[in-house]
Amino acid sequence: MNTCPEMSPQEIVNLTRRDFLANTGLGTLAFASLLAQDGYLAQGATLRNDPLAPKAPHFTPKAKNCILIYFEGAPSHIDLFDPKPKLNEMDGQKLPDSMLEKVRFAFIKKEGVRLMGSPRTFKKYGRAGMDLSDLLPHIGSCADDIAFVRSMTTTQFNHHPGQLMMNCGSPLFGRPTLGSWLNYGLGNESQNLPGYVVLHAGRGSSAGASAWTSGFLPSTYAGVLFRNQGDPVLNLGNPPGITPEMQHLGLDAIGDLNRLRHKYVADPEIASRIGAYELAGRMQAATPELMDLSRESKATREAYGVERKTPTNNEKGRGGGPETYATFARNCLLARRMVERGTRFVTVLHASWDHHANLNVELPFCAGMADQPIAALLKDLKQRGLLDETMVIWASEFGRTPLGENRGGSTNVTGRDHHPFAFTMWLAGGGIKGGRVLGKTDEIGWGVVEDEVPVHDLHATILRQFGFDHERLTYRFQGLDFKLTGVEGASVVKKLVA
Amino acid sequence: MMTGFQKTIALVALLAAPSLPAAETKKALDFTKLPPAASGAVDFAKDIQPIFANNCFKCHGTEKQKGGLRLDLKQGALEGGDLGAVIVAGKATESKLLHLVAKLDGETQMPPSGEGRKPLTREQIAKLRAWIDAGANWPDSAVAAAKKSGHWAFNAPKRPAIPRSGDTLVAEPKSGRTKGDKSVASPRNPIDAFVLARLAKEKIKPSPEADRYTLIRRLSFDLLGLPPKLEEVHEFIADKSPDAYEKLVDRLLKSPHFGERWGRHWLDLARYADSDGYEKDRARPFAYVYRDWVIKAINDDLPFDRFSILQLAGDLLPGAGAEEKTATGFHRQTLTNTEGGTDQEEFRCKATVDRVSTTAAVWLGVTMQCAECHTHKYDPLTQREFYQLFAFFNNASEKNLPAPQPDEERAYEAAKKKWNTENARLLQLRDAYVNGAAGAKFEQWANTASVTAVAWTALTPEKASAKSGSTLTIGKDAAVTAGGKSPEKETYVIEVKPGAGPVTGFRLEALAEGEAKKAGKVGRAKDGNFVLTKFGVRLLLPGEPAKDIELLNAQADFSQPRFEVAGALKGLDTTGWAVAKQTDRSHTALFETKEPLVLPAGARLEITLDHQYKANYTLAKFRVSATSATLPLRLDSLADDVALALSKPAEKRTAAETERLKKYLLTQVDAEGKKLQAAVDENAKKVPTAPETFAATIAEEPAGRVTRVHVRGNFLDRGAEVRPLTPAVLHAFKPRGTKPDRLDLAQWLFSPENPLTARVTVNHVWKNLFGRGLVASVDDFGVKGEKPSHPELLRLSRGERVVERENRRAEHPSAVARGHRGARLRELGEVDGKPRHGAEPARPLHFFPAHRAVSDADDLRRAGLERHLHAPRAEQHTAPGAHAAQRPGVLRVRAGAGPAHGGVARDESHGAHPPRLRDVPRAPAAQRGVERAGQSL
Questions:
Q1: Alpha helical stretches, state H, B574-694
Q2: Residues pairing with A153 in the sheet
Q3: Which of A132, B492, B690, B895 has CB atoms 3.0–4.6 Å from A140's, for a disulfide?
Q4: Cβ neighbours of residue B589 under 8 Å, at least 6 residues apart?
Q5: Residues whose CB falls within 8 Å of the CB of residue B2, separated by 6 or more in sequence, listed in order
Q6: Looking at the predicted structure, is the pLDDT value of residue B54 above 50?
Q7: Which residues are paired to A425 by β-bridges?
Q8: Could you give phi then psi for residue A425, rounded to 5 degrees?
Q9: Averaging pLDDT over each range in A391-395, B16-20, B83-87, B275-279, which range is the top one?
Q10: Hey, of B2, B367, B858, B916, which one would you mutate to test binding to chain A, going by the most A CBs within 10 A of its CB?
């Protein structure tokens, strides 16, 4: 990591000072002694000199941890969150050409495209009387803790650029994600686990590592992907032929070299590296305990549905294999366990919401996977008093068209195309005002008519809850003080925050 | 932008109101306000330039270029601003400059009021009008009068005076050494002289010379990225000659690993990766062709100017060959978005933007990318200038050239030879049997065999046409061959006149005998496949509308999974009948008619073969036949001629028919014959394929695109047209002809007047050797970049030069490294194990090599890996996880290539951190570029 050129003189002085402290008796424990202590650092007993040491934000934060539930592919807002009777009435009708003229679609052919109503039934939930589709009854039962935003908009209409936009505030590669920014700004409370963990179910992530990249921030702020099966992190064991003693000797030698080098050059990337080695050592001990769900009560496990069977009528569906339902439920429960143990940011991913076709089969499958565990997570967090400080976000890159997708050659219209002009997301916990519905779309769910929330405004709002002025959480790179919220200006959505 | 628009249109839809967003109304210009042109001759230097200087330069001059316009330079003024030209020579009334200074629209005036500024007088406007009307003559001599940027980096450096060692040497040699030991205290070259001078100023003693063990270790890591072998250390220690150090440097520079190590640095600048980036992040299996070119170029000590020009414009050099073209792979390292539903023009523009930004960063050290959407906020670079550079790259097309590597070709030739021998042997065995031992068997069989064959009548088309431009040729055997243009999607239509019928079914033969280019393949797609999305038959009767004939029960001798033949009756463009893995042989499909089709006299059938899948998945050659056989039809393997021959009594068969039957029996019925034939067939599957290796290159499109400014960086919002041109703040651009191209740009970079490229390049080398550049922001020499920590040393690189070769403008890394042979800076660096700071703590007086080499070396040792030069590409030896991180669930472990390492041959993804054995020290390639280069090793 080439932070040196980007560091201000003050930063270098600070590093040196911290380095001084670290090396005069209070400092980092040597790796060998760490291992000697059952792989743990005594809680709270050390002064950490790594870049993930906890830091205070700009002002008192409402939220400390974040669970981002990200559904790649874009769930249909019209079929889940935003009922449109008018659209149902207009089912099969054309849109005026003037409306389609300048719009770009991913797959829809403008010629002959028609509006498509939704077969879903909606019911009112909670104080705000939030309409939710029959696919989300469990989430409905948590409506009073949730703020729904029906007026999200984004600038991108292809998945990957859209995912980058939602995760990083820019459709371009190379920017840090929200999780990286928060770890950069706040550090990691956990001694034994990464500050930023990524869990996934089903087919994996379509955005890949760019959904948890640290971009230009030091790599220490990048998300760590946990696997679904076997060891959550690979290579924590020693390679064949390397005895534990050899491993210790090698790591000690590298640690010594790194510390030596760090003394000279004060390069924070070296500190990252020392931190990474030490964290890896502690994780060897801490992860089995974390992943062991048998310590949870039966009631809890059932509430999340960690032993749920995936419906078999969708074996050929795109939602994922037979383990998908159980894995997603387990991930929700793991997210809570991680947050409890101090992990700052957990992303729970599922990638199969891109319903260009077969919407009425695929969406129930996906929603069926999501609904119960997410509601269980919210209730579990609340019951443990964690919801006050833990923000839970339902996110995706965009919504889906009120138009049926008439992809060329296809005789049946059974799905919807990408739609960046209006979609729904929701937030709960971390000081977000629950039981609210923000924003309004027009009568067919096409455009926002009230309280538009662009992605940058959403990011500004989330950062505020974590104690940051989004204008001041910056990192200098290529001569520019980069912000999650870009240069165009963004504002906190006041109506969302308590 | 979209959302506002969306609101509008949603409103339109719902209210059905025919309202339109109010167009930006253009105020009418009131020309009566324009003073008449001044009479008499107008002299630019005397009359016009002072007007600009006194009234305009503050916002449109050296330091600021509002709206992308500068009026202090001829080029800038006459080209115009981000929104287009402001001076139309000869036509004052059409010149925006005059509209604005005279406030013709009644609203906007230049210069704007405030801060003591005054509008131009009528007299001044009259002079401007006269000057423009007379052709806006701007003598080149007037350029000198304009003030250039005062920023150090945009001005040519002056060679510094080299401190004389006697004046500055204050350090006492370490005890135990004699005063005469010059290796410690006296400078060996100008760099030493500056270092010693500075140390003296800071009152710091120079370090003693490092010991030999340390020296060889440092040199090996720096130059090769590898630790020295034990015997090499001993050899160096034992070498008592005074030039042992120089000899060691020379030896290391000759090592092939030198190119790998320094190629790695360059590949970081080139944002090299083995994958596409974006959602799919598909592998680029032959990316190594460019990578190996870089390594070889460095090992061959290609001069840096040529090294650069080849990479930027090798394809445009006269007589450019494979070598020159391969080098242009530099600008093929951009991202490619293969996600469905993308607008490819958008991502072509993004790649072009990347090419501009990377070129500017790597060779000029300026943050040109800031000007993609707006004129640069700090440096004198306008948005218009960004698109002028964009114009150089806008006609670049991505071309893949076959590039089998010599070892691959050798392996292919050897395999082919071996295969031919084996094939000949198997054929000989089979034929010997057919012609020998089997005679008696045949007699018996041919007289008794009774095969119920379906009789098919081949339908010779009367007409054959293709809707999207392929040419169809009807052969004597009733087969139709496609040729000519190979469109993405295609529909073949043939018209046939069958017999009276009744027709109970149709047979379609996809023949692996297409035109020469795709000989032996059934389809015209790159992989030899086809996807038949619809097989349709219509009955044509004179004077009646065409009638669809319903077909069902599709069957085929082979269909590839998920592309079953039944799909050919559905007419979707997402599926159909295809035969992947068996594209090298003919296939047959049958379709039954729902009811036997009786054809009245004069009836014709129109048969449509539709290919709506994509990417040229069209049939290469086909034949349609009809039958009246009883249903259900069955596929049989009998060729028509065999069936015919068998249906005759033995005595009525011709000699040829007998021969045909004989071959049929012995190769397809008789057990022993079948075995021998199977061996031939089996072997045929193993025929070696020619290497598919290609070099990703850049070529110039013959029909040039017009380049326009992308307003606010939006590729859909095209502004003023621009020509290829270099930024005005830098040295003059002298193209070879009237249509400047990339080669002109590349040569401009190496013009002797260029103040940047040499310094930027030396700074990279410095950074790679010392861990920090003389200018710490290696990619930003602009106003907001770091100031040089040792300006004299940076100037030295231009003046005294670190290299010996006088004929080069900027230096290739190896040359610089060679120049370092005498430099004792590194040895002077570490004194007593403490970092040393001067008065200013943020500016260390010396630097240390970056640390990654150590970790790499450790990786090597632990994994027992060898470094391979020119390994095709590395498999993911990091075990599941590294790339699984990129796309969990999609594990991309490729078999074949042996483990390779060394920071060069590892698989690199545009999207994910590179796989490492221990940790993740480097960013994904896509975000690397210059500013990241320093962190590699």
A1: 640-647, 655-664, 671-685
A2: A454
A3: A132
A4: B507, B508, B510, B532, B535, B554, B555, B556, B557, B565, B568, B577
A5: A153, A155, A420, A421
A6: yes
A7: A149
A8: -135, 170
A9: A391-395
A10: B2
Residue A483 has pLDDT above 90, yes or no: yes
Domains of chain B, residue spans: 31-147, 212-254, 303-404+691-752, 454-635
For residue B51, give the H/E element and its range: helix B49-55
Sequence-ordered list of residues with C-beta below 8 angstroms from that of B744, at least 6 positions apart, any chain: B392, B724, B733, B734, B735, B736
Picking from B3, B281, B878, the nearest residue to A421 by CB comes out as B3
Identity of the residue in B5, B367, B921 whose CB atom sits nearest the CB atom of A478? B367
Nearest partner of B62 among B54, B74, B70, judged by Cα: B70
**Cβ contacts (< 8 Å) between B16 and chain A: which residues?**
96
Record the tokens describing residue B390, joined without a space: 């964009």
pLDDT of residue A338: 94
DSSP symbols for B63-107 = S-BGGG--SSSHHHHHH-BTTB-S--TT-GGG-HHHHHHTTTTSS
Domain ranges of chain A: 64-228+292-496
Determine which of B7, B712, B774, B917 to mutate to test the interface with A (most A C-beta atoms within 10 Å).
Answer: B7
- CATH superfamily of this structure's domain A64-228+292-496: Alkaline Phosphatase, subunit A (3.40.720.10)
Q: With an 8 Å Cβ cutoff, are B572 and A222 in contact?
A: no
Question: Tokens for B55?
Answer: 């009234």
Contact B341 A105 (CB under 8 A): yes
Question: Which among B786, B885, B931 is the nearest to A209, CB-wise?
Answer: B885
Measured on CA atoms in the order B737, B738, B740, B741, is the torsion positive or negative? negative
Q: Would you place residue B872 in the very low, low, confident or very high pLDDT band (cuts 50, 70, 90)?
A: very low
List chain A residues with CB under 8 Å of B351. Answer: none
- Return the SS3 of B470: strand
B335 neighbourhood in chain A, CB within 8 Å: 173
For residue A89, the chain B residues in CB contact (below 8 A) are none
CA B385 vs CA A478, B96, B722, B744, B758: distances in Å: 19, 19, 9, 16, 22
pLDDT tens profile A368-413? 999 999 999 999 999 999 999 999 999 999 999 999 988 765 567 8
**Which residues in chain B have Cβ-Cβ distances shorter than 8 Å to A258?**
851
Q: How far is CA A355 from CA A318, B491, B924, in A?
A: 9, 30, 30
- 8 Å CB contact of B835 and A103: no
Give the mutation candidate from A16, A159, A173 for the B interface (greatest B CB count, under 10 A): A173
Test B778 with A273 for CB contact under 8 angstroms: no
Dmax of chain A from CA atoms? 76
Residue-wise DSSP of A304-325: HTTTPPPPGGGTTSSS--TTHH
Token pair 């003080």 is found at A481
Q: Do B912 and A5 touch (CB under 8 A)?
A: no
- Which residues in chain A are contacts of B764 at CB distance < 8 A? none
B residues 550-589 closer than 8 Å to A (CB): 570-574
How many other C-beta atoms are found inside a 10 Å radius of the C-beta of residue B811? 24
**B880 interaction partners in chain A (CB closer than 8 Å):** 234
List the structure tokens of B930: 């210059």
Angle of CA points A279, A280, A285, to nearest 5°: 95
Q: Report whether the peptide linkage leading into residue B502 is cis, meaning its omega lies within 30 degrees of zero.
A: yes
Interface contact B851-A257, CB threshold 8 A: yes
pLDDT tens, residue by residue, A91-122: 999 888 877 877 888 888 887 788 999 999 99
The token duo for B62 is: 């050296």
CA–CA gap between residue A72 and residue A205 (Å, rounded): 7
